[in-house]
Amino acid sequence: MSSERYNPRAAEAHWQAAWAEKALFECRNDDARPKYYVLEMFPYPSGRIHMGHVRNYAMGDVIARYKRARGFNVLHPMGWDAFGMPAENAAMQNRVHPKGWTYDNIAVMRGQLQSMGLSLDWSREFATCDVEYYAQQQRLFLDFMDVGLVSRKTSKVNWDPVDQTVLANEQVIDGRGWRSGAPVEQRELTQWFLNITEFSADLLDALDGLDRWPDKVRLMQRNWIGRSEGLRILFEIADGAEEAGPWLEVFTTRPDTLFGASFMAVSADHPVARACARRDPALAAFVEECRRMGTTAEAIETAEKRGYDTGIRVRHPFLPDRLLPVYVANFVLMEYGTGAIFGCPAHDQRDLDFANAYGLPVRPVVLPAGADAASFEVRDEAYTGDGLIFRSDFLDGMTVEEAKEEVAKRLEGRLVDGRPQAVREVNYRLRDWGISRQRYWGCPIPVIHCPQCGAVPVPRADLPVELPEDVAFDRPGNPLDRHPTWKHTPCPKCGAAAVRETDTMDTFVDSSWYFARFTAPDAASPTERATADRWLPVDQYIGGVEHAILHLLYSRFFTRAMRRAGHVGMDEPFAGLFTQGMVVHETYRSADGRWLGPIEIRIEGEGPDRRAFDAETGEPVVIGPIEKMSKSKRNTVDPSDIIATYGADTARWFMLSDSPPDRDVIWTEAGVEGAHRFVQRLWRMTTRMAPELPAPGTPRPAGFSDEALEIRRATHKALRDVTQDIERLRFNRAVAQLYELANALGAAQPTAPDKAWALREGFELLAQMIAPMMPHLAEGLWNALGHDSLVAETPWPELDADILVEDTILLPVQVNGKKRGEVNVPAAASQGEIEAAALALEPVQRILEGRSPRKVIIVPNRIVNVVA
Ligand code: ANZ
Ligand code: ZN
Question: In angstroms, rounded to a whole number, what is the distance separating the alpha carbons of residues 161 and 183?
């Protein structure tokens, strides 16, 4: 069989069966070896895996296989993030049940992942829509209630009047529902919240300790949590509505700009706005209009800044004669700070836009370095940079920081109506997490609403609250809500007729603790505490940067919440995080603007002469920019097609080879073919060479010729570098090293016994080192080299570092005047190192029998004399 072409299809199935038969990747919780938990973000069962999955899981599998070979007890599980809208959309469009649709998709995708030869522990697999999983999630919800992390509040939501559901901000596109296209309304709804803001400070501070996370992800989290240090200041109401009260309280992060204040603004929901609206119908209309506006950051940033003068005037704290007008403004949120601000147009863009629209004064008070105080002006662009304070009385000449402190100190020390006029305050932009969704295909919130007792938790003994299966999707809205029987149930407290909560949980809840569940997927409680504590945190988490904010933040919150409820003993779920780049591909468009897929076109020529044609009609096709693979642009390549044609190893190898793993990788046909040629070459080289090599386990020769040493050097240099590259997740560099080693081995011939031995070592190590990336081929090569064991259960090779020392000298070693051997030491080795190397020689140790030598005499560059 030796020089036949390698047949990946047959070989891959064969080795997958061999691994499965020995259950090599099932890991045990009671294994005493050190643990290593590697996890890739679990997929949504959309129907088929895409190239992004292949890349993600190929990387995780390199780590898993490598760590296993290094002697770790590796946990590498897989599951399904299986609740969510697409299943319901499919139900509405195709009249299939969300459950059937989901589990069918899972079956297809499981098969696809298995064809990749991933070293996954399938015995731990679950889907978040399994009753066993969401039952435990309901238990967690009740536990979180008990420890004070659940609340019920009204909040403004984006409401899609056609689909009759709440939309996340991302689902509102240009003010319309992403699915229905209907104009989105703002509604006040009572919803369930998880109190993530209890941990704002800790979630922020602990980012510093996550030193194996990318800086950019930590920065994104920091910005999302959005800590700001500021001051609450009371402004005296000098003139205006009685009902507004004597003081207006604002929150500011820039008290240094106080002398530049030219107006005040309050949110449409602020009590002052409500009070004034009662006597002013025009203001009431404006307030209504503001409420309809979206609450997204984008809506607020992009909307035209508008306001309404209430007629109220307040007094500047340091300038008793300056009275500032109070507006109701559409860019001030009630949910942040105090819902009221002072506006300093010169140094805040929103304030400037507003001031320019309403003819309010613009007074610069921060002077940029090098600017001229007499002529410095701000017109259309606010100056938000640093500088020295001017035109500000006692603050003049101070830095921004000094001025902030000075204003704080003076106002803190001034009592008004018996309280300080200002207090320092830290604010966070992070909001509590509203988890209610008016959807069917999610985890039911385990609560019953009783007319007498209010919201009553479902008793734990009555869990799970199971989703009913007989639901109809013929109308929009939540099928749970209009189910004839499901929601009716007696109150667990008083027995009165009551109704179930029909909202289900945000699917981000499902993915916030699955990594903990994998540690004991069959436990009768959310976790098995001791087991979870042994496995967590995940040592290496890998996924797309699109989850850098919400998923990771929610998981970090959940871990803290689970700790408070006694389910885990740590705060942070992921010790190491890696965010992989995307898989991108050229795009193709026909003359009439249709997108064409890579298999629908034919390429001719190369370089500047490269042209594309419609494979069917022969019409010319425009080659467009390289973009993220997406169905809409049809520039996707189906992993199953690639695996069927070239095998999983080729796909994995190519995914790992071309670009650094955190960058985008360009999928090209030529690249895949190149990878496949390498697979064939390795097979050919190894099977041809194997018969000429000494048997496995042949003792190492006493010495090596220069040529043999050269082979060994290439081998061990590759081992050293590949090991480091895998440890540092630089897979593309590891791949490059392996190409180089293959070239070196391919050029050598086993013309003498020492060279043949060195070649066996080289080919064996090559097979072992490609195993994390191309596990099937590696088994084939290992087998061709005469082993009946599996590479997947063979330890990582030992590095022979000595032979890598380029400038070495060979020193004879004598014991009591008789030559017993030689040591190969770096030319620059110290006396101590030479002595240690000499004493480590096997014949020397035999003579010493564990005693220390009486004396070691080293004649530099000549000889080592051991006196025993
Ligand atoms: C005066 C001022 C002058 C401000 C200046 C900024 C620049 P961060 O950093 O995000 O916390 N603000 C306060 N509460 C607000 C609310 N409810 N809605 C909208 N804006 C609000 O932002 C704090 C700044 O945002 C505050 O500092 C306040 O404007 C505004 F040159 O006060 B500042
Ligand atoms: Zn009751």
Answer: 8
